[in-house]
Structures are given as C-alpha cells and as structure tokens.
Amino acid sequence: ATPKDQLVVAMNMSSMRGLDPNELNQLEAAEIVANLYERLIALPADDITKPMPGLAESWTVSPDGKTFTFKIRSGVSFHSGNPLTAKDVEWSLRRLVKLGLAPSVDLRQWGFTDKNVDSLIKASDDTTVVLETPEVWNPNLIFYSLASFSTSILDSKLLAEKEKNGDMGREFLQTADAGSGPYSLRTWRVNDLLIADAFKDYWARTPKMRRVILRHIPESSGQRLQLEAGDVDIATRLSSTDLAAVQSGGKADIQKTPGFGFYYLALNQKDEILANPKVREAFRYLIDYDGLANTVMKYYGIKQETIVPAGLPGASDAAPYKLDIDKAKQLLAEAGYPDGFSKVYYATPVTPEYEVAQSLQANAAKAGIKLDLQGGDHIGKFRNREFEIFSARTGERLPDPHAVLASYATNPNNADDAKLSGLIAWRTAWDVPKDIQDMVTAAAHETDQEKRDDLYAKVNQAYLKASPALITSFQRTDAKAVRKDIKGYVGHSTWLTRWDTVSKGQ
Amino acid sequence: MPDLFQPILSVKNMSVQFPTLSGAVTAVKDISFDVGREKVGIIGESGSGKSTTGRAIMRLQPANARVVAEEMRFEEVDLLGASEADMRAIRGRRISMILQDPKYSLNPVMTVGEQIAETVILHERIGRRQARQRTLAMLERVHIRDPERVFNLYPHEVSGGMGQRIMISMMLISSPSLIIADEPTSALDVTVRQHVLSILDDLIAERDIGLIFISHDLNLVKSFCDRVIIMYAGRIVETLEACRLNHATHPYTRGLLEALPSLDHPKDRLQVLRREASWAEA
Amino acid sequence: MATRYFNDLHNWLINEDFSSMRQARLHKAYVLWLSLIANPLAFAGFVVVAALIAIAVLAPLLANHDPILQDLTMALRPPSALHWFGTDEFGRDVYSRLVYGARTTLYISILVTVIVAPIGFAIGATAGYLGGWVDVVLMRITDIFLSFPSLVLALAFSAALGPGIENAVIAIALTVWPPIARLARAETLTFRSADFVVAAELQGAGVGRILFRHIVPLCAPSIIIRLTLNMSSVILTAAGLGFLGLGAQPPMPEWGAMAASGRQYLLDAWWLTTVPGVAILLVSLAFNLLGDGLRDIMDPRNA
Amino acid sequence: MTMISVSNLAVSFDSGDARKHVVKDVSFAVEPGETFGLVGESGCGKSTVLGALAGRLKNWSGTIGVDGEAISRKRSPQQLAKQQMVFQDPFGSLHPRHTIGRTLLEPLEIHGLGQRQERVEAVLRDVGLPASFRHRFPHQLSGGQRQRVAIARALILRPRILLLDEPTSALDVSIQAEILNLLKDLREREKLTYILVSHDMAVIAHLCNRVAVMQDGVFVEIATREQLLKGQVAHAYTRTLLDGSRGYVPTRARN
Amino acid sequence: MTIVQTTGTGPSRGTAALAALQKVATSFGVILTTLLGLLVITFVVGRMVPADPVIAVIGDQADHETYERVYKQMGLDQPVYVQFATYLGNVAHLDFGQSHVTKNPVASDLARVFPATLELATLATIIGASLGIPLGIISAVRKGTWVDHVARIVGLLGHSTPIFWLGTIVILVFYAKFGLIPGSGRLDVYNEGLVEGPTNSILVDAMLAGEWEVFRDALLHVAAPALILGYAAMAYLSRMSRSFMLEQLRQEYVLTAKAKGLGQRAIVWRHALRNIRVQLLTIVALAYCGLLDGTVLIETVFAWPGLGQYLTSALFFADMNAVLGSVLLIGIISIAINLLSDLTYRFLDPRTR
Ligand SMILES: Nc1ncnc2c1ncn2[C@@H]1O[C@H](COP(=O)(O)OP(=O)(O)OP(=O)(O)O)[C@@H](O)[C@H]1O
Ligand SMILES: Nc1ncnc2c1ncn2[C@@H]1O[C@H](COP(=O)(O)OP(=O)(O)OP(=O)(O)O)[C@@H](O)[C@H]1O
Ligand SMILES: [Mg+2]
Ligand SMILES: [Mg+2]
Predict the structure, then answer these.
(1) Do E204 and E321 fall into the same domain?
(2) Which chain D residue shows the shortest CA-CA distance from B269?
(3) How far is C234 from chain D (nearest CA, A)?
(4) Sign of CA dihedral C224, C225, C231, C234
(5) Residue C145 sits in which domain range?
(6) Which of the listed CATH numbers 3.40.50.2000, 2.40.50.140, 3.40.50.300, 3.10.129.10 matches domain B9-94+178-280?
(7) Are residues E258 and E203 located together in one domain of the fold?
(8) CA distance B150 to D48
(9) Subunits touching E (CB < 8 Å, at least 3 pairs)?
C-alpha cells in the first residue's frame, strides 16, 4: 500500500520532454507543471469555461477590448524564497513569446511576436501587469490562454542566476523547477520516477499530500496490477480492457475527462478520387461509430460526428451517420467508382488509433476500397501533404470552439508553399468553404457571447454539410483509474489536474 | 623365467559387437589368448579388431559396444563380473594402456607432471609432495634429462618422443602387471622410435610385467615381441613365436610378409594379398 | 505383400552398392531419415515443423472462419465451440488467424534463410579463404554489425525501410548474418588447407569454384543448423517488430503480432496472447530440437 | 633433357620476425621416367619441397624448371596440369560430399576437356577400380581404394610428373603393396616421372632410382638405389634411417 | 645415440612483453575503427528513420515557423556530413551532446540508466551461468538418457518462450496473486531517495551506504526480471556447454584418463571442464553482451528504467544523440568484454600463452 500522506501515480512518461513550461507540449508534463507553477488565471476543473483568479487577484478589460490590466496577488513567494512580483509575470510571458517554441502559439495566435511583445506586455508597478492585444479578440480567449500551462509564472531572479549563454534559463528549467505552485520538484529521473514535495509556504492552502510520486510504468497491465494491489493510487494510461476490469473490480473509479480534440480521418484533397465529395461522404458511412464506441473507444472517446466539441458553445449531438456499407457503395457508384479503388492509409500503431484504423480498413474492404494500412511514424509526411489517407487525433487545450475550428476549418491559403502546416485543414489540402472560414474568424473577434454561440452553431452545421475532408468520429477523452480512497483528484480538460486538492480518506 | 607360462591374463571366446543402422557389426569374434609376463604382439590390418580387443580387456569399449566372453580373467580378477568401481581400481594400477599419439592422448591444459602425479595420488593415496617426488623419479627413469623443468611443461611444449616417454611414465608409475600399448610408436620418427621402445623394453624387463603390443608393423613386432598374435577380420588366425614369424603358415600371415618391400630381399613386384572368405570363418 | 515390398525397398535404399546417382541420393536421404527416427527429440521437432508446413498449405481447409472478418459485437469472447480459441479485440476468430498465421511464420522463416545463408556464407567464406586484407576488412565489417545491439539494429532498419513484412525480414536478416559469416569463416578456415581443396587448386580451380563447389557443401550443414536454431529468435523478433507496427501489416495474421497486440488484453483475454505464444513456443522449440538433432546426425564430428 | 631441375630452392613461412626458413638450399635434377625419393624425419621440409614444385606454395626463391620450362610463381593452367600431387592421407584428400565421379570430372571441367564420361571410366580402369564406383562417396571406399581414386584424379589430366607425398604411409601393408605395384605399372605405361616422399627406406628402395636424404631443410646426401641396398651410404643419418626401417634393435642386447 | 630434447622454450620475457604491447596497440586501432564504423552506420540509419526529431520536440500541432526555428536550433539545417563531423569532434572531447527527449546531457542519462541494466544483466548472467553450465554438462554426460532430454527441453523452453508473456505471467502470479514479489521498478516508494550513491547501481550503493533495508528491497525487485532473463541466458549457455562437453568427451585424452583409473566425475569436472573453460568464458561473455542489449522487453514489462528502454524510446523519437551515445556505449562494452575474455583466454589456455 502507499503511504497515507503520499500520492503515487502511475504514468507512461516516455513522451515527456523536459519541464520548461515554455517548451513542453505534452499531457503528463503539463500536469506536473500545473502543480509546480501557477498562472494568472485558473480554470476550475468542474467549470472549465469560467476564468477565476489565480496569481491575478483581479483584472479589468478596457472598453475597446484591447487592454487587459491584471492586479498581481502579493505575498506570494517562489520555491526559491524569492517574492513573486509583476516583473516576474512580465518576464515570463515575454519569454514564452520570445523563445517561440511549440506552446508559444498560446500567445502568438493573438498577434504577439518577439518584436512587439516588449511593448505589449508590461509591468507598470510591482503588482500590476498590463497586456495589450494587437486586435480585438473575445476576452475569454485571452483569459483561457493565460490559464494555460505555458503561461506559468517563472522565478525570473532565479533564472537570471541560472542563465547560460543567454538561454533565459532553458537548460536549467528542463530538469528543475522555478515556480510558486503547491509542489516543488525534488527528484526527477527520466522514464523512471518523479518526486514532488509539498510547498510549505503555498499561499492558497497547505497541500494534504506531503509528497507526490510519479512512477513510470509503461505497460497498462503493470499499472493495473499495481493499482489493484494498492501500490499506486492512480493509473493514468490504462487500456480499455484494463479500465473495464478495474471498474468492475470495484477498487477504483474510472474518471473520464473529456478533451477538446478529435479522432479524425484526413483525406488528401490533392488526390483526385478523394477530392470527390461523394467519396468523402462514403467514408463517413464506413466508420463503425457504435461498434467502436462500445468496445475499443469505450474509454478513449465519446462519439461526436460534428466539429464543435461537446460541452462547448454551439455543440450539437447530431449523429446523422452510422456504419452503412450499402450506402457507401451507392455513393461510390455515384461518384464513378463502383468497383472501389485502393489507397495507402497511414496510421500510428498505438491504442486506440490503430484499432480504429483496422476497423475502417475492414469496413472499407467490404465496400471495395482496398486500404493498405501502414503503421509507423508518418506525421512528417502528413505535415508535408505527402499522403493519401491519414488518421490520428488532436488535443486542443483552449476550452473554446475556436481552437478546434481554427485548425479543422480554416485554411486561408491552400497553396503548397503557404506552409500553414500548423493547420490540419491545410495539411489535408482542403479548400475550406469560404463561409465557414469567415464565420470562424468572426466568432473569434466577437465579444458578444450570444452572437458567438450562434455563429458556432452555424459553423457546426455548415461543416457537417460540406462533406469535409477531415472527418471526425470521436471526441477525445482521457481516462484514469483512481482508487476509491483518493478524494479531490479531478481530471482537468486542459491538462491542469491539481494535486493540492487531493486527500486520502478511509 | 618360470612365470612366463603363468598367464596374467586369459581370455576365452571373447566377442565384441557394435550395433549400427544396418545391423550389429561383430568387430571381434570368439578370440582366445593368454598373456604371461612376456611381450605379446597383436598385428593385423586396419579394422581387424586390434584396438577393440585392447579396450575390451580394460573394459573401456564405447558405451554402445557389447562384449561377451566365456572367460576374461586378469590375475585373480574376473573382468567380466567386475563392477565399474573394481575396474577403476584396476585401471592404471594393475593394467595400463599407452595410446598412439601423445599429442592427443595427453590433456592439453594440464602440465605433464600433474597428469603423471594424478595417477599415483589416485591409486596410492599419497600427498602431493610425495607424488611429485615419485613423478620426478619416474621421469628420470624414462631418460628425461631435466625432470624438474619438464614437470611443469604443457603437452604442446614437448616433442613427440618425449610425449610418448611421459605417457609411459604415467602408465608405469603405479607398477602395473600388464600394459596394453596400442601402436605406441606409429606417430614417431624411426630414430625416436628406437629410443622409446628401448626404454619401454627396459622397464618391462626390469619389473617383469606383461605387455600387449598392438601394431601393424611386422618388422617391428618381429624384432620387439616374444610372441605374435595375428588377427584378421576380428578373429585370431594364427599365434606364434616372434622369431618364427618368417615361417608362418597361415596364408594371411604369409601374404602380409610377401607384401612387404624389403631392403634385404628386394623384389621387383610385391605380392598382393588375395583374401579368402574362409579366413574370416575358421 | 506390403511388408515384403517395404523390405525390398529398405534393402535397396540401405545398400551402398549404387547403380545410379539417384540411388546414391536416395540412400543419403534414407540414412538421414533413419537416424532422425532414431532420435526421439529431433523427430518430435521434425513432426512439428512438418505439421507447420502442412497447416500453412492447408490453411483454407483447416480454418473455420474468415481470418480477417471483423465483428465488433463478438470482440474478446473466450474459447467456445464456435470459436475454438476465442476471438480477438475485433471479434476475429483466433483459431483461423492462427492457422493462416502459420503461412506468415513460414514465409518469414524461409525468407530470412534465403537472404541470410548466401550473404553470410559469401562474406565469411571469402574472408576465410582469401585471408589477408580481404579477411581483415570483411571481418571488421562483421564485427561492427556484431557489436550493434541487435534488436536496435533491427528496429532502426525496419523503421528506416518502412513498415511491411519483407522489410522487417530484411532488417532481421541484417542482424542474423554476422554470426553466420563468422561461422562460415571459421568453417572455411578448417577446410581451406584440406588436401582436397589443395588438390583442386593444383588443378587450376579458381576462387569461385572452390568456394561454391567445395566449401559450400561442407559449410552448408552447420549454417543450416545454426539458422534452424536461430529461427525462434527470428520469429520472436518479427513479433516484436510487428507489435511496433513495423512487421506484418494488418489485417495479415502473424503469430508474433497477434501475441504482441494481445498483450494489452493479457489479464482478461488470456487466450489472445497465450494461443499464438504457445504456437511460437512450440514451433521454435521444434526448430531448436530439429536443429540440435540435425547437428548430431549430420556433423560427423558428433558421431 | 631433364624433367625437373631445381637449384638453390629456399622456402620460408611467415614474414617479419617470425620468419621460418624451412627449406634452406636445395638443388637436384630429375630425368624423365626417373623416380626421385625424398626421406627425412618429420618436419624436415619434404612436403614443403613438393609444395613449391607443385605450385601450392608461393614464397620460394631459387629456380625451378619443369620440362625445360622455367616456372614462375604464377602458373598457367597448362603448367599446373603438367604435374599433379597425391597426398598422404586418403581420408582427407577426397571431398567427403562429392561422389567419385564428380571428383574426377572436376579437373576436366576446369580445363574444358571433352569426352568426360569416357575419360573418367578409362582412368578408373587404369587404377583398377570398377566404373560403378563413380556413384560412391569416399566414405564408402576403403583406404586403398581412396588412394586409387586420388591417383586417378591426378592422372586424369595426363600429367608428366606425379608428386607423391607419402602415398602409402596411411595404408596397411597389403594395400601398400597394391598401390606400389600400381605406381610402378603406371610409371611404365605412361612414362611418368615421380618424386616420392616417404619415411620408409624399404619403400624408397623399392620404387626410387635415387633418393635425397633431408635433414633440417637441406639435403645431407643423395644416394642411388644400389647404394641403399648395399648399405653403402656416406652419412650417419642415412644409416640410422636404414637401420630404423629394419625394425627394433634391442639396446640391451647390444650393450 | 643422442636424442635432442626439443621443448618449446618460447620467446624471452622481453620480446613477449613487446609482442603483448604490439597486440594491445593493434587491438586499440581495431577498436577505434569498429567504433567509428558503428557510429557511421548509426548515423546513416538514424537519418533514414522517418521519425522527425523536430516534431518529436515541438509536437504535431506546431506551425511551420516554430518548426523552422527549432529545426535550425537543432542544427539540422547543416549537411549531414557536417553534423557527423561536429558530433565526432564533440565525442572526441567526451561530449555526447544533449538528448532531445530527456533534455539531459546524454552522458549523464547513460550514467543513470546503464547501471540499472548492468545490475540486471549481471545478475541474470550469474544466474544463467550457474544453472546453465552444470545443466549442460550433466546432459552431455548423460547424453541420450531422460536426464538429457529433460534438461534440454527445460533449456530450450527458456529459449523459445516470448519474454514479455513470461514476464507478465510472473507478475500476475507472483505479484498480483500471491504478493511474493514487489511489482515493478527498482525500489518501493518508501525506499525511494534513501540512497543516492556514487555508482547508480542501487544494490552496490545500498551496500556501500549500509542501508540493508534498501538493499533487501532492491534485491527483491531485481529478482524476478533477473530470473526470467537468467532463464533465457541459461538456455543458450546450457546448450553450448553441452556441445562443448560432448566434444571433449570424444577426445583421446579422456580415454587416457579412464585408462589411468579416473572415474567419470573426475574426468568431467577435472579434465574436460578445464579444457572448455575458455570456451565457456567466451560464451558467458557473449551471453552477457546479448543480455545488455536484449533487456528491452523485460525492462518494459517490469518498468525497469534501464538502457534498453532508453535506447528504444530514443530511437522512436529520432533522438540521435541519445541513440549514438547508447550504441557507442554498448559497442564499447561488448568490445571490452570480448577483449577481456580474449586476455583471460591467453591466461587460461597454456597453448595460447
Ligand atoms: N564405436 C564403434 N561403432 C561401430 N563400429 C566400430 C566402433 N569402433 C570400432 N568399430 C569397428 O570395429 C572394427 C575393429 O576396429 P578396431 O578399431 O579395433 O580396429 P584396429 O584393428 O584397431 O584398426 P586400426 O589398425 O585401424 O587401428 C572395425 O571394423 C570398426 O569399424
Ligand atoms: N604453412 C606453414 N606455415 C608455417 N610453417 C609451416 C607451414 N607448413 C609447414 N611449416 C613448417 O615447416 C616445417 C617443414 O614442414 P613439412 O611439412 O615440409 O615437413 P615434412 O618433412 O613434410 O614432415 P612430415 O614428415 O611430418 O610430413 C615444419 O616445421 C612445419 O612446422
Ligand atoms: Mg586401432
Ligand atoms: Mg609431409
């Protein structure tokens, strides 16, 4: 059994890439950073769309919607003992933009660049930070971004000491922490173990768990057995059968945290056959939504055929498609391919993506489409539009339809050399209908929440009708098994699960 | 020598069979002979069963071989009925065996001294020190000049002739009463052979023991042994005094003699042995 | 009557007084066969390998379901009268996949042998026969491949070559040839100065003739035996690669990939990994026993 | 005209510090149809001389002439075919997995000669083996039969010279007699020139016209057959060898 | 009559030392070329692997600008040979670069993961050798009897069982069902962080620190994976020892020993074993090298943070520095082990002295 005052979590850490909040880009690392650091704004796990005060006690938005003024909480100190001031906030946010690494999109997408950030983000005194946006955006989008792990506030004084060759402390931060969160990093051995100790001077509350231990257990069966034996409290990467077994075993609860991303199928529109809308539609009838939902996808996803993630404004539960081979055949015949065709199909050989792909392969075969399924790492080819059919999943972190739609439904320039490879619509070479793109852009700038909700509902319908080249089937969920005596461990849709709220009861 | 006629070994109707894929092969068939304190040569062509006979006496035939005999007696011991433990006490102490090629018949990773001393330690239960003394003395006895040095050599570091002398000392150190030498000099040069044989000859005379000398060299057996047994196809076709070999009567023996080129009686053409089926049956 | 006929045949085969080349060959095979029967473990291995071949050939007759037909409603069912070895995560019949998988397994084994034996032999024998700098260069290359972590080499190459069973086989072959080359070299060294090779040289035979007409027949048994003994690790490596998406591609049934992908269901659907696992175990055990037996039988030094 | 002329032949193995001079300075000439013997104890360099003559060894110096032709280190197929070698060990000199027929066909293939089956049958007849032996493998033959096959293989290219390296020392006396007779017959019939290595003086005296006694890489004496038979040898070492081949001389008796 | 007593006096001590030195010098050259070849191949293969190291760092969804920026930062815009030359230059200064995945210097990563694998492989080799060699010898001595058959089948099963399957079954039975062994990893959470020693091998460190509780815990953790690996190694070792022993028992000197009156036991364990110890040493060394890189699967099943896992994940994320560093390490180790066994060989076998 685990010690009473310690939380032991089983994880698969093999894809973790350092602990620098401005560099990492991955779920497990994000959860750790969420607890080592704090951000201006907090999004409660149970009401994810509602910005709450974090390090910022309060804030105001100027009437033109472009200037945000944050009042920084005083009396907060970093793990190093340095007091946290507005200067640290200014330095941290600028650092994110200037380093320009993967998570910098969180600010860059609103128009911040390494050129303008020094003038747009400023600490006016020790407790006030002023942030200006180059354009008017819906303020929630900005607040959500400031709640992301990437906008964590770093200890600028400490990092100044640790700086090497002007790296803004990057090397140091990979394996150390410079935060003010409820836990401080004690030991980290990559692909082995991470130990975090409770931070005594944490301002909000005293964490009940004196220590949190994350163990790298790559095998699902290993995690499950340890969980059932009580040697770990939480298992985070279980296969669906193991989840089912744990659930029926009664020692732990299964927590399904919905995420804002989809399992998708991408049909390259540079391919003549796949560019045919009827062929695209035919593929929708080849996905065994219900069969998968009850088996492979039971814990990994929620059936969602539309494009706005469930739980967000404009979402709909319309499900007009279901597995229908005959219908698919008919569509193919109408498109001029009664005898089908064959295509190369790339998918990553990981659960459940590969199972979903194999299911599609089997159904397609019945409709006469021969899919040559190739496992392996093909993301590079997908990004360069060098594929025929590809499937994977995304994980957007903003609790707002904009994040998903910007990637799935905008493609301002469909030319090869535009290199908008951040957008999966561009990668698919899909010339998204203009009205959809316009509505998505308008909604992001719209400050009136009702109009916005309306716009998203329309986009949702238009997307469905467009017979998209990016077909969504399941909305991603992340399932964890939590032993019954663990209270307060609540999965967070934007990867910010907290440990300081956890307690162990009998 | 009165006890020359008192046999130390007597074998009656011994046969040895090997099972093979195409039925059992009888390598030795119903042979009988006695050995006293004398030098008995066994000659015969390759495959006639000489080595098999020698090994059967020591009960060292391959595991799959089947040995049957009416009687096999060595001094007071019944070799047929002796247990494996009895045999171990006999081998090396009372009957010894010298093999053809010292290059292969010595353990390559043990010093020669160690290998000789092992025999006395095993049979006489004496200490290492004492065994070493005995070994050195024995080495000296076989005309090895610097026994102290040779004691610590490995087999690959000694010449063929020396190797065979080491083999002799190893097999004679426990004073056995019968020695079986299976072609002890065939791997040696003529010059060395003479020396090795004379050492063996001396030791045998000195200790008054019996020797079974297996060879296919007629000239050698004739000049070295007292009696000769001639084998053909697993049978003994003839037994005679060595000095009378030239007057052998059996056509096989005669054939062998005629086939030999000779310095003293040069012939233009050699006689070729014409085998007769009856030889193998008689 | 029949026994009489068999006796005659036996006598004709066992007789060493040949009247034709064909009889000589048949005799050789027959003697091998007799020694095989006489060695119970090797014979057991032979029977299993023969069964594997038979199953592979007769797969369509033996299978009672379509091996690639999915039925998600029937996923992960335990063994029953309908599905003898249960069903997998897609509701496919494990028994039928096992039967068809024999083909893949056999295919891999044969392909690896076909690639590795000639390459390993050519490199090893050339190095051993020619000696000198050729030997140094070739053996250095062999050493480099030998000191590579073998699974990593296979992984890297099959990742580089792209997924697919043939590519996986090539990648595996890359890890298998160095020991074969070493073996071929060692064997060649023992034969290089044999009198019959010298005799051929003195008659003017060239390097190629000596290597392929004289050395090959002598090295072949030990190389084949070594490959037979390697077969289990070849199958297991192919399995590992299959699990990583680099070996056999779905929906092709392959034992290794079946065992590996069933691994995540091991605790609840034991049959998924256990059935192909036991099949792999049996076949590699059989290959091993057969290889050991062949070595005992064919190598005169082991007589 | 001499068939073989060798002067100042020296052979060494291994280069550098480990260099070993095995044959130091050897000269002799052999007439056509003559049989020239070589005796000496193990390791004195007899086989090495033959190896250099046959073209098996390359690291020799001095001059070798065969059939009036000076031989260089690299030989043409014709030059190779002119002399063939028979080895000591009949068990090691035939390829264990080749049938006799294949062994005999091989030289014909190498030299691109025709009428192969006929030649094989003829040469088998020459060495006194039935034609049906073509289908056998070496392990199915006795030592003497194998040695006959080895001789047949050497003869099939119709060489002028046979180099015989202890051709009978692994054989029983009865078989040795057959082979020695065969060699004698062939020499007469085919007008062959032999160089015969043996350690048995009786064999040498039986077959050779002259013999070179070798010790430690040099010839200590070249004696004729008559000298051997009469015991008129000059060198003590030659005498030792002669005595040795008569059998065991008890030292006790001598003392 | 004089008989020349020829004995191999061998070269004098001085020349022997010189020859040994020469030998060392050539082997050093050989090692360097082998390692260089190893690096070249690894580099080339690494370049061929389709996984994109940049994407591995920035994630799938990053945009093109970020991609370009990181691409340059990682030095991938330079020609391959320049990258390789730079790498070689760094290696010459004992700098193995930084891992993209772990963000640590590769050298410090290796210093952490390698001892874990070493610990496992060493124990497994000890287990495999101490069971496999006697088993092989016994089955050689009893060739063809049921003892031989059983011993061979037991050994071969170890060679033919999928390791991941066996590993999971062992965990299931001995951990989950009977609770006899600890689950996975190297230590229980209670004992984490109690010893942070100089060698990174917990067993050794705990022993040095005198933390016997930790030592016991670590030993319990390593037991199951080491036994499973040891079983696999045992199969190989017992088969090889069997055939070596059979070979020896056919030798003429065995007959001599029997003729002296030695019993079977003395012949096998005193005479024959001494003749095969060099070969045994070689195969134990080979098995050890094999285990060092063959631990991938068992490390995954038992969540053992060792080199096998490190290397595979590096490979999958195209983390070239980590891959090169690990391959180099394994290469050096396997060359070193072979060299060592070569040297011992010289020492143990009088014929090669
Ligand atoms: N282990 C065995 N299995 C089968 N047959 C055997 C075995 N050992 C010997 N033989 C056969 O027994 C016969 C006699 O062999 P043996 O070795 O006694 O002959 P030998 O007279 O010593 O011959 P050589 O002079 O060649 O040493 C031969 O025909 C041989 O083939
Ligand atoms: N390839 C070789 N490399 C090094 N040394 C060699 C080689 N071949 C022969 N020798 C050495 O040359 C010497 C003469 O060898 P050779 O074979 O000519 O002797 P031989 O007179 O034929 O002896 P034997 O009667 O034993 O056949 C021996 O000391 C041998 O060790
Ligand atoms: Mg014999
Ligand atoms: Mg010679």
Answers:
(1) yes
(2) D181
(3) 30
(4) negative
(5) 39-298
(6) 3.40.50.300
(7) yes
(8) 31
(9) A, B, C
Q: Determine the distance from the C-alpha atom of residue D205 to the mean position of all C-alpha atoms in its chain, rounded to a whole number.
A: 15
| Residue B142 Cβ contacting ligand 1 at under 6 Å | no
* C-beta D11 within 6 A of ligand 2: no
User: What number is the ipTM of this complex?
Assistant: 0.83
Closest to E189 in 3D by CA, of A481, D235, A215, C187: A215
Residue at C27 is within a domain: no
Residue C65 within a domain: yes
| Judgement on whether residues E258 and E344 belong to the same structural domain of the protein | yes
Backbone φ and ψ for E74, nearest 5 degrees, come out as -85, 0
Q: What distance in Å separates residue B64's CA from the closest CA in chain C?
A: 12
Q: Whose C-alpha lies nearest to ligand 1, atom 7?
A: B18
Report if residue E7 sits inside a domain: no
Residue A103, burial from CB neighbour count under 10 angstroms (0-12, 13-18, 19+): buried
Residues from chain C contacting residue A294 (CB–CB below 8 Å): 72
What residues of C are in contact with residue D85 (Cβ under 8 Å)? 198-199, 202
Q: Determine the Cα–Cα distance for residues B197 and A374; give it in Å rounded to an integer.
A: 80
Q: Are residues E111 and E89 in the same domain?
A: no
- What is the number of structural domains in chain C? 1
In a domain, E10, yes or no: no
What distance in Å separates the CA atoms of residue D43 and residue A284, rounded to the nearest whole number? Answer: 87
Q: Above 90 in pLDDT, residue E43?
A: no
In a structure prediction context, what are the per-residue pLDDT tens digits for chain A, which is 506 residues long?
788 899 999 998 888 888 999 988 888 999 999 999 999 999 998 888 899 999 999 999 999 999 999 999 999 999 999 999 999 999 999 999 999 888 998 999 999 999 999 999 999 999 999 999 999 999 999 999 999 999 999 999 999 999 988 889 998 998 899 999 999 999 888 888 999 999 999 998 899 999 999 999 988 888 999 999 999 999 998 888 889 889 998 899 999 998 899 999 999 999 999 999 999 999 999 999 999 998 889 899 999 999 999 989 889 988 999 999 999 999 999 999 999 999 999 998 888 898 899 999 999 999 999 999 888 788 889 999 999 999 999 888 889 999 999 999 999 999 999 999 889 999 999 999 999 999 999 999 998 989 999 999 999 999 999 999 999 999 999 999 999 999 999 999 999 999 999 999 86
For ligand 1, pick from B20, B42, B48 the residue to mutate: most ligand atoms within 8 Å of CB. Answer: B48
Residues of C in contact with D103 (CB under 8 A): 196
Task: Tell me, yes or no, whether D97 lies in a domain.
Answer: no
Residues E157 and E266 in one domain: yes
D135/C19 touch (CB, cutoff 8 Å), yes or no: yes
Same domain, E36 and E112: no
**Kind of pairing, strands B227-232 and B235-241?**
antiparallel
Residue E327 is assigned to a structural domain of this protein:
yes
Distances (CA, A) of D231 to D224, D227, D239, E40: 11, 6, 8, 73
Q: What is the CATH number of the domain that holds E112?
A: 1.10.3720.10
Q: How many domains does chain E have?
A: 2
CA of B53 to the centre of ligand 1 (A): 9
- Identify which of A288, A292, A358 has the shortest CB distance to residue C250: A358
- Cβ neighbors of D167 (< 8 A, separation 6 or more) are D86, D87, D88, D147, D150, D151, D179, D183, D196
Integer Cα distance of E77 and A151 in angstroms: 30
Query: Are B161 and E259 within 8 A, CB to CB?
Result: no
CATH of the domain at D206: 3.40.50.300
Contact check, Cβ <8 Å, E271/B110: yes
When divided into structural domains, chain D yields a total of 1
Q: In terms of residue numbers, what domain contains E127?
A: 106-352
Q: Which two tokens stand for residue D56?
A: 């098996």
Predicted TM-score of the model (pTM)? 0.84
Are residues E64 and E192 both part of a single domain? Answer: no
Task: Tell whether E232 is covered by a domain.
Answer: yes
CATH number for C199: 1.10.3720.10
Mutate to test the interface with D, among B250, B263, B274 (most CBs of D within 10 A): B263
